[in-house]
Design a protein that fits this description.
The complex is a heterodimer of chains A (389) and B (728). Chain A is mainly alpha-helical and 389 residues long. Chain A contains 17 helices and 1 strand. The relative contact order of chain B is 0.09. Classes of the chains: A mainly alpha (389), B alpha/beta (728). The interface between A and B is medium-sized, with 27 and 24 residues.
């Protein structure tokens, strides 16, 4: 990413944006005295125009365009090596995280959603929607006396069509706003990160290379201060994908039966069923990964993982809650405890809704922004010489 | 002192001396050739028994002069101290022989014996100095300048019990601090500017009965010297008084902002930091967009080549105050490097926290007018390349110029008649008006600050008894200036205490000897009055030298300068060194044992030589060293003496000279170099090679290189024919 050396840039410092970064997790921003240690110690920053030093400089001047339309903010994996080595306590890792928080909020649009996700009070309204909607659907679609039916079958309370009726439109909305956000982000990238190689590399091969890198967690593997992240995040990610796949397969199996395309197993699946095995392995991976994250970030050494802001806690605990209630519902079902099982299943559905539908406005959206930014950078051949992008 | 000198030679065999040389043979040399009245050897002369031995001989009157042949005079000086009435000399046969030569070698023995011979003729020539005590010396300290440094010096001198005459040219005390609204923090937690409390310092001065304040006063004339400075003032009453020492604390002037046209100093809205400070102090609200340019005219060869060390912190203070005065203001600071030294770094950290203060490194800023606004363009910023900022006001942080400078001052003399000291007076503000032959003001270093070595001789100017403190000495902030003032006051106290005892203050603190002029043979050639590095010698109308001895630092540069050898000290004279040169046992021409004489500065080169010995490096055994008070005391007579006595080569090992000189007496080694270059003539007259003389600079840290330096010269000399004057 070449700097525009020849041009004279007129700078208008923007104190309001500086304040914004400070309020969104970059509180220590102004302590920076621009020594550049952060860029030197970073194991994933490219040699040319490295981050996070330049972001620290821009951030102190409040140069929002440069900061938000900047792929580097997302190439940073927040491992906090820079924060550990900062001689001034400016915590560049926190500032980069703050910029990401501001990014997904700004690109996703629907400002009221951003406001609701920025503060704990918003959680009330965010939860109220699925509580009422799913509660309503249960009231309408549940089979009479589902509580006393044996064996315990969750679809007696919330039949699959009802679930789909709730989730398909809601997730559809989420996908639309996510795509809108990505489109805005891509535009900003092109406008402000003029680092796209000429001619740019193929988007397909760049995307594949990025997927491979993510699959192997190559970048997180380079983190020193928080090396725990490699295994915990890897487990969480694969666990989550396995659970998503399970959910998808179950829905698929239901509709195959429903549409008479052939008899396949129906829920509840036997514990030996491959899909059930996939789901249970996924649940175990995810619960282990997130537990590690929670233990580390909220434990004694939590300081070292970067300062926690509400965005982090919201995402971590909604995800953790979703996984724990899923496992809890399954366990109680197998134990035959009907009332607690149905109760916790209801909570599970509420949390799944909260996790997925609000994803474009929450930290969950890091999945897509990071993927897009890394692909963009890869197309621009912005990678570490001799290293893996 | 007895009329007939009875020299005792005391030879120590401890510390390896006895293993290296035959001490009994040395004793024989001392007795037979050196004509010692008494010669004793001892295995540990510095022990209680050894010292008692000497003391008994002194008490019984068996000896009146003591020559200790043992370790270096730089050690055990407290042990070998036999009272004021005993002539004492130290012959170093430990560092210079036992520790740096091959043991039991013929040349080692010859070297030690030569040192005994030289030592014995030296002590014979040495006499006890009779101190020079000026008439009616004063212990009053005059402080020139009533700013922070001057007032602090006055208060501290007064606290120590000395009367102070404080002279301030303005109508009020306070100096530059009077122009400040708030000041930089000087105590923990260093996180915000503090109230300007100069008034309390002023009150303290005014309330001090030991301090006599002269306001609106300047110097009319200062004559005399340390202990006897006769000062007359220009003010309403035309007062005059006598002072023993002077603290020069006249402060600084801010660099003239009008010279910074590249930085838009002629544009409306562009102000210097002094003017901006005034705005803040008067409570004028600063505009919304302010850009500070640090290093304005500093670290810039066209203006001030140096860093003034305070502009960064004071600009940060102003940025902070501007934000307080106008919370809507956004302040941009363009710096080259933020230099907030010491605890001021904490203040910098605090200012950084303000979201309305923006900082960037930036080079070659240019200020221009665009429409009704100002623009500041800077290159190579942290923001990437060239960056422009729009501003309503630009503040140029200007550096400090010592108040002793006034570029308009010229010296009314044709260039070819100018002496070095005349050139020193060019561009000097008229402050001290000294009645000195070498001019009225204190000489300076290249940057215009009065001479004052940062490490070795802080506060010392090139005029004895005049001590610089505060920003006139070098740029500094107020809290450093306060420390500085205490240091200078201490030096002034040292001066007023020592001068009445006839002692010199610096760098030969406590020395009682002083130059004596055999005026009946003086040729009025003016060399001594011109060459004295301290302006200690005045002249009468017939150009006879008039030494003002309390100004003298006893470096003996005058002794070295005098072509008719009429200037000598009781214990350091041309004939004494001449006798040492001639005292050695010079081998015959056909023996192929060359001899090299090395004059060595006792301040740096000699310690370096001794360090080589302490580290057991081998020094070439054909060289005999004669320590000099300063290379400046080298008299050309000695070169002639050495060459005519058959020495094959001569080394002059002095201090580095030039802009970064290390000479304790500023010009000594430089003068010696000039004199040595004139020896060329002498050599031609004697039909000798000029390469027989080497002038070199040795720093104390050069001890590792010194042996090779000496070997190279000996090798060069050995390649020549032996000195044909051997045996004459």
């Amino acid at each position: 990413m070449a700097m525009t050396e020849a041009q004279t840039l007129t700078i208008q410092p923007d104190p309001a944006f500086v304040k914004c970064i400070m309020e969104n997790g970059g509180e220590t921003l102004k302590k920076c005295f621009q020594c550049g240690n952060c860029s030197v110690v970073c194991n994933i920053s490219p040699d040319v125009s490295p981050f996070p030093r330049k972001e620290m400089v821009w951030a102190q001047w409040g140069l929002s365009d440069k900061l938000l339309g900047n792929a580097d903010v997302w190439i940073c994996h927040g491992c906090a090596d820079c924060t550990t080595h900062c001689p001034r306590g400016a915590k560049p890792g926190d500032v980069m995280a703050a910029l990401r928080n501001i990014s997904f909020r700004r690109f996703a649009g629907f400002d009221f959603m951003g406001d609701l996700l920025a503060r704990p009070v918003g959680l009330f309204w965010l939860l109220l929607v699925p509580i009422v909607w799913i509660g309503g659907m249960v009231a309408v679609a549940s089979r009479q006396g589902f509580m006393s039916m044996k064996p315990i079958v969750f679809s007696n309370m919330m039949p699959v069509p009802a679930i789909d009726a709730v989730f398909l439109p809601a997730v559809g909305l989420a996908v639309v706003s996510a795509l809108l956000g990505l489109a805005r982000f891509w535009r900003e990238l092109k406008a402000n990160s003029p680092g796209l190689a000429t001619p740019p590399g193929s988007i397909i091969s760049a995307a594949f290379a990025v997927i491979k890198g993510i699959a192997l967690h190559e970048k997180m593997g380079k983190c020193q201060t928080n090396s725990y992240r490699f295994s915990s995040h890897l487990m969480t990610m694969y666990g989550f994908f396995a659970l998503m796949a399970t959910t998808g397969l179950v829905a698929l199996m239901y509709w195959i039966n429903k549409l008479g395309l052939g008899p396949v197993s129906a829920t509840p699946l036997a514990l030996s069923h491959p899909v059930k095995i996939l789901g249970n392995i996924g649940a175990l991976l995810a619960v282990t990964g997130v537990t590690m994250i929670v233990a580390r970030r909220y434990g004694q050494d939590g300081e070292k993982t970067g300062s926690l802001v509400y965005y982090d806690s919201h995402f971590i605990f909604i995800l953790y809650g979703t996984i724990l209630t899923g496992i809890g519902a399954e366990t109680l079902r197998l134990l035959g405890l009907a009332a607690p099982a149905f109760g916790i299943y209801y909570v599970h559905l509420v949390l799944v809704f909260t996790l997925l539908v609000y994803a474009p406005f929450s930290k969950f959206s890091h999945i897509m922004y990071r993927f897009v930014a890394m692909t963009y950078a890869r197309m621009g051949k912005r990678e570490r010489p001799g290293g893996v992008d | 002192m007895a009329d007939i000198k009875k020299s005792g030679a005391y030879i120590c065999s401890g510390c390896g001396i006895g293993d290296s040389v035959n001490v009994e043979a040395l004793a024989t040399v001392a007795t037979k050739e050196g004509k010692a009245a008494l010669t004793r050897t001892h295995p540990m002369l510095c022990g209680a028994e050894g010292v008692a031995l000497v003391k008994e001989d002194v008490a019984s009157g068996a000896v009146t002069a003591v020559s200790i042949a043992a370790c270096s005079p730089r050690v055990c000086y407290d042990i070998f101290n036999f009272g004021e009435n005993i002539v004492l000399d130290r012959i170093d046969i430990r560092e210079k022989v036992a520790w740096s030569q091959e043991p039991r070698h013929m040349e080692t023995q010859a070297l030690a014996e030569d040192y005994i011979r030289m030592g014995m003729v030296k002590i014979k020539a040495m006499e006890i100095p009779i101190p020079f005590i000026p008439e009616e010396p004063s212990k009053t300290i005059m402080v020139l300048g009533g700013g922070i440094a001057g007032m602090t010096a006055a208060i501290n001198a007064a606290k120590a019990g000395y009367k102070v005459e404080l002279v301030e040219k303005e109508a009020a005390l306070g100096g530059f601090a009077n122009t400040l609204g708030m000041r930089l923090p000087d105590r923990a937690p260093y996180d915000a500017p503090m109230e300007n409390d100069i008034a309390s310092l002023i009150e303290e001065v005014i309330g001090d009965s030991y301090i006599n304040v002269h306001l609106g006063a300047t110097i009319n004339k200062i004559s005399g010297g340390p202990g006897i400075f006769d000062v007359s003032l220009v003010n309403g009453a035309n007062k005059s008084f006598r002072a023993g020492a002077i603290v020069l604390a006249t402060g600084f002037k801010s660099y003239d902002v009008k010279k910074l046209t590249r930085l838009g100093s002629d544009l409306p809205g562009v102000v210097g930091s002094v003017e901006f400070e005034r705005m803040l102090k008067e409570g004028k609200a600063p505009p919304r967009r302010i850009v500070f340019i640090l290093c304005a005219g500093s670290r810039d060869d066209e203006h001030l080549p140096y860093c003034s060390s305070v502009c960064c912190a004071s600009s940060l203070k102003q940025a902070w105050l501007a934000r307080q005065a106008n919370p809507e203001a956004s302040v941009t600071v363009i710096y080259r490097d933020i230099r907030t030294t010491g605890n001021m770094e904490l203040f910098y950290k605090q200012v950084q926290q303000d979201p309305g203060i923006f900082m960037t490194k930036g080079e070659s800023p240019v200020v221009a007018q665009e429409g009704g606004e100002l623009s500041v363009t800077a290159d190579n910023t942290l923001l990437g390349g060239k960056v422009k900022f729009m501003a309503d006001m630009v503040v140029l942080a200007t550096g400090m110029v010592p108040s002793t400078l006034d570029p308009s001052v010229k010296v009314d003399k044709p260039e070819d008649q100018m002496q070095d000291f005349d050139r020193d007076q060019v561009g000097k503000a008229s402050i001290l008006k000294l009645d000195y032959r070498q001019g009225p003001e204190v000489p300076d270093l290249k940057l215009g600050f009065p001479d004052s070595h940062f490490i070795c001789f802080p506060y010392e100017t090139r005029r004895t008894g005049i001590y610089a403190a505060g920003t006139v000495r070098h740029p500094m902030d107020a809290s450093v200036a306060k420390n500085d003032a205490v240091g200078a006051a201490m030096k002034a106290i040292q001066c007023v205490e020592m001068v009445p005892r006839g002692e010199t203050v610096h760098p030969r603190a406590g020395d009682l000897s002083h130059p004596e002029f055999a005026m009946e043979r003086c040729t009025q050639c003016k060399r001594c009055t011109v060459e004295c590095p301290f302006g200690a010698i005045n002249e009468d109308e017939k150009t006879n030298p008039i030494p003002v001895k309390s100004r003298c630092r006893r470096c003996a540069t005058c002794m070295g300068a005098c072509p008719v050898q009429i200037i000598n000290f009781k214990n350091y004279s041309i004939s004494m060194v001449g006798a040492m040169i001639k005292a050695i046992d010079m081998p015959e021409e056909d023996e192929e044992r060359p001899r090299v004489l090395a004059f060595i500065c006792e301040n740096d080169a000699m310690p370096a030589l001794e360090m080589a010995g302490i580290n057991r490096l081998r020094i070439n055994p054909v060289v005999r060293f004669i320590p000099l008070r300063c290379m400046g005391s080298l008299n050309l007579q000695w070169i002639a003496d050495a060459l005519s006595s058959g020495w094959d080569g001569i080394m002059l090992l002095g201090c580095k000279h030039g802009d970064d000189y290390q000479c304790h007496n500023i010009k000594g080694s430089e003068l010696a170099t000039t004199r040595a270059s004139k020896v060329q003539e002498t050599l031609d007259r004697l039909m000798l090679e000029s390469e027989r003389i080497l002038v070199d600079a040795v720093q104390i840290s050069d001890w590792q290189k010194l042996p090779k330096m000496i070997d190279d010269f000996v090798e060069q000399v050995s390649g020549m024919e032996p000195n044909p004057y051997k045996g004459f």
